[in-house]
Write a structure and sequence with these properties.
The complex is a heterodimer of chains A (299) and B (488).
Chain A: H1 7-31, E1 33-37, E2 43-48, E3 52-55, E4 59-60, H2 61-80, H3 95-118, H4 122-125, H5 129-142, H6 144-147, H7 171-180, E5 182-186, H8 190-193, H9 196-209, H10 216-222, H11 227-233, H12 259-268, E6 270-274, H13 283-297
Antiparallel strand pairs in A: 2-3, 5-6
Helix pairs in contact in A: 1-2, 3-13, 5-13, 7-13, 9-10, 9-12
Chain B: E1 31-35, E2 37-38, H1 51-69, E3 74-75, E4 78-79, E5 81-84, E6 89-92, E7 95-97, H2 102-123, H3 126-131, H4 133-149, H5 152-160, H6 165-190, H7 196-204, H8 210-230, H9 232-238, H10 240-245, E8 255-258, H11 260-263, H12 288-291, H13 312-324, E9 331-334, H14 336-341, H15 345-352, H16 355-376, E10 381-387, E11 394-395, E12 401-411, E13 417-424, E14 430-432, E15 438-439, E16 444-453, E17 461-471, E18 477-486
Antiparallel strand pairs in B: 3-4, 5-6, 6-7, 8-9, 10-12, 11-12, 12-16, 13-15, 13-17, 14-16, 17-18
Helix pairs in contact in B: 1-4, 2-16, 4-6, 4-8, 6-8
Classes of the chains: A mainly alpha (299), B alpha+beta (488).
């Protein structure tokens, strides 16, 4: 409850608070009566700005009761709510407790909705207008930071709408990706491929796989060297979804297009990560999100 | 019969005093210990009829018909005046306001403040005397009090007398009526925020939300307490207007004034007395002006800060003057200059048109015109364009540069809105979207737009562009600035 490390400061603050309230009452009592001459309605003799005189007029008595009510209120408040040092108050209220209550209330309210969604397949969810609206919110709040508001990604962050999947585009695979995250690794392969010239040849061969502009002589020389890459990317460069190795023949370039981007990848390798969402989102939310994401490429 | 005397009370003149010497205690006066807080003296205002009283009752009917009646009016399918706080939509007849339209509320408040300055400069505390809810509800509550407990003298006599069945019955009747009016007021107030038919249904089924219960009872209780018990205490000790309105007075402001030159020396006299040959002035010292005063002051002591300018004393004095066959207007609306210089009505009217009043009038009408024109020329939708949070720019496989934007369209009409978006600023730049750009009535919606630039059309860096959004059934075209980024 309290951030104090010792009991002293709690007592110190409580004492100041209570003495302050007592002092207010004392002040009120002491100033309630005064020694005045005659009728008590006269000027106090204080004059400002030539002719502005302070009159000794009584205040209405109900004002005093307002002060008294304030004091009673503050005492009642200090008994019920945290305010006196580390005393938690009789109601045991706390801001974090209130937050948790509201979260629990919200979850109880949406439970029937998510129960309905959980009973549906992701394919059904991708066509359900209500699920799509919830999916859109979840996506905007949790996914759009990397994949973009239109889910088309950007360099290093995959496009989710193009039907090209590193780890598979079935609903099960998508759900697995969201739940557990992915770590994609391309090791630096330059040493395994050979000389710098060999690497350049391989790069041109890779470009040729998708029919991109390339040097056909170098591509022909690079073809035998591609066997090193084929372990993951496959003999024809079509990729292996079980490993997350991208298809090199489809003209989709997650980390950049052209010879230089491929050279950098072969020379330096790359580690790319999709963070796991299991801790952030509930299973039912991930289920809805799976349907929403699957729907991008399966209209 | 002489009415009971009111206890002596201090008089605080507003007029500047030239006496600057501190007032010394009278010789021989001994200091005594007294409470510095005065107990509340209950005021029993006598009922009054006359021109100003009638005007006030017209204002009571006008303002209360408006207040109690408005929530029951319909506009199409909905309540005509509804402030939907949960959805943040504010409906006033045809008008639909968003929180983004807050400037109109500021405009309204400026108009109200300046109108108050204007009315106050011309005729003093007109607001306090005729239109303030405190006055209006007090008037209603005092009317109920008179119906149940009788007018001033009967009421005072009964209050001082012992408790009888009759007294109990009368007081109970008053309380029942007061609580009913207070509660209905609270109900009507909440009816501006929750559709009043829904609210009535919820009350019938005891299914009110906790905030609705709170506001119905809080507003109802405030009405009951302020109009039933606090009354002049609110004006004297709580209301800031009371204190600063007199700062807007000048010597040509119409205020309720007692004609001391004509009235003094006051005194009781026989009806047959010939005033011209008598030493007495026109004031018969009947003290009726004091008895009718809702704030319990004596207007014959001059203008005081408690005076809310209700004119009750002027009404009652005119009646007395009629009975005495004296000319009316011993207590009347007049100005300080007029009293001093013996001006007539024409002269007073002439002095209304002074620079201060003209200036207030000009400023008020200018702002009313500005707010009015701006409301009439309001676009049927509002637009906000934001760059996507993550991707600055992306290069598609064919070298096309793509930027992603989010476009928010707020439909301020109650019909479905369809917009068309164009973009300008770079050659070949075009908008691509899969979405149907329609917005439901009174809703706002985000759309994702992609802007595509063919390769080689712009140098790497940032380029200013602008969106042109037009409502397709409308001639309105809104422009929004943005930047298009081309990566290196």
């Amino acid at each position: 409850m309290s951030d104090f490390t010792g009991g002293f400061w709690s007592i110190y603050i409580s004492a100041i608070t209570l003495i302050g309230i007592a002092a207010c009452m004392l002040l009120l009592w002491r100033t309630g009566k005064g020694r005045v001459h005659g009728s008590g309605n006269e000027s106090t003799g204080h004059v400002w700005d030539v002719d502005l005189r302070e009159m000794n007029n009584p205040l209405p008595r109900w004002w005093v009761w307002m002060f008294v009510i304030s004091v009673v209120f503050s005492l009642a408040y200090l008994v019920l709510y945290p305010g006196l040092g580390s005393f938690a108050g009789q109601l045991a209220w706390s801001s974090s407790g209130q937050y948790e209550d509201e979260v629990a209330k919200a979850q109880a309210a949406e439970a029937p909705l998510y129960a309905k969604f959980s009973a549906m397949t992701p394919e059904q969810l991708s066509r359900d207008p209500q699920a799509k609206q919830i999916g859109e919110r979840l996506f905007m709040n949790n996914c759009a930071q990397c994949h973009g508001s239109d889910a088309r990604g950007s360099k290093g962050f995959p496009n989710l709408t193009d039907g090209d999947w590193l780890y598979g585009g079935t609903t099960d695979k998508i759900k697995e990706t969201i739940t557990l995250g992915r770590i994609g690794q391309m090791p630096p392969m330059a040493a395994a491929v050979g000389t710098a010239d060999d690497v350049k040849n391989v790069a041109n061969y890779v470009l040729s796989l998708s029919g991109s502009p390339h040097d056909s002589l170098r591509a022909a020389l690079g073809k035998p060297k591609f066997s090193t890459c084929a372990a993951c990317h496959g003999a024809h460069g079509a990729g292996t979804q079980a490993l997350g190795a991208p298809n090199l023949s489809d003209n989709i370039w997650l980390h950049g297009y052209g010879e230089n981007a491929i050279l950098a990848m072969v020379n330096q390798g790359k580690v790319n990560q999709m963070p796991a969402q299991a801790g952030k989102l509930t299973e039912a939310q991930i289920h809805v999100l799976t349907g929403y994401v699957w729907g991008f490429s399966n209209k | 019969m002489k009415p009971p005397e009111r206890p002596a009370r201090p008089v605080i003149p507003i007029a500047v005093s030239t006496d600057t010497s501190p007032i010394a205690p009278p010789p021989g006066a001994s200091a005594e210990l007294v409470s510095l807080y005065a107990a509340h003296q209950k005021i029993y205002p006598r009922s009054v009829s006359g021109l100003f009283s009638r005007l006030r009752w017209y204002m009571v009917f006008f303002t209360q018909l408006l207040f109690y009646g408005l929530p029951w009016l319909h506009w199409g399918e909905r309540q005509a005046v509804l402030f939907d706080l949960a959805a943040r939509r504010f409906y006033i007849f045809k008008l639909l306001l968003y929180p983004q339209d807050f400037i109109y509320l500021a405009g309204l408040l400026v108009i109200c403040a300046l109108s108050l300055f204007l009315f106050t400069a011309v005729a003093g505390r007109l607001w306090c005397g005729y239109a303030c809810p405190q006055t209006v509800y007090t008037e209603i509550f005092m009317w109920i009090e008179r119906q149940t407990e009788g007018d001033r003298s009967a009421h005072m006599r009964r209050d001082q007398g012992p408790w009888t069945m009759e007294k109990l019955a009368r007081k109970t009747a008053k309380q029942v009526l007061w609580i009913a009016v207070g509660w209905w007021t609270g109900f009507t107030f909440v009816g501006y925020f929750t559709p009043i038919h829904v609210l009535a249904g919820e009350i019938a089924q005891f299914s009110l939300g906790s905030w609705e219960v709170f506001w119905v009872f809080f507003y109802g209780f405030a009405t009951y307490g302020n109009a039933g018990y606090m009354r002049e205490q609110v004006c004297k000790h709580m209301c800031p207007y009371a204190r600063f309105q007199s700062a807007m007075f000048d010597k040509d402001t119409l205020i309720v004034s007692y004609d001391a030159a004509r009235g003094e020396p006051r005194g009781a006299r026989s009806k047959k007395l010939d005033l011209a040959s008598s030493e007495l002035g026109a004031c018969v010292d009947c003290s009726l002006c004091v008895q009718v005063c809702p704030t319990g002051i004596d207007i014959r002591n001059g203008l005081q800060y408690e005076c809310i300018g209700c004119g009750a004393c002027a009404d009652v004095c005119d009646e007395v003057m009629d009975k005495m066959h004296y000319p009316r207007g011993l207590v009347k609306y007049s100005t300080e200059n007029a009293m001093h210089n013996q001006w007539g009505a024409a002269e007073i009217a002439h002095h209304v048109f002074r620079p201060r009043v003209m200036l207030y009038t000009t400023v008020v009408w200018t702002i009313i015109a500005m707010v009015g024109i701006s409301l009439l020329a309001r676009a049927p939708f509002k637009v906000d364009v934001e760059r996507d949070r993550k991707s600055l720019a992306r290069e598609l496989a064919d070298g096309v540069i793509e930027n992603v934007f989010r476009l928010q369209i707020m439909n301020v009409t109650e019909a479905e809105l369809r917009v068309h978006v164009q973009v300008d600023g770079l050659p070949g730049l075009k908008v691509v979207t899969d979405e149907d750009l329609t917005v439901a009535p009174a809703q706002s919606r985000w759309f994702v737009l992609r802007l595509q630039l063919p390769p080689g059309q712009a140098t790497p860096g940032s380029h200013p562009i602008h969106f042109e959004i037009d409502g397709q059934d409308d001639t309105t075209v809104l422009k929004e600035k943005a930047v298009f980024l081309v990566p290196h």
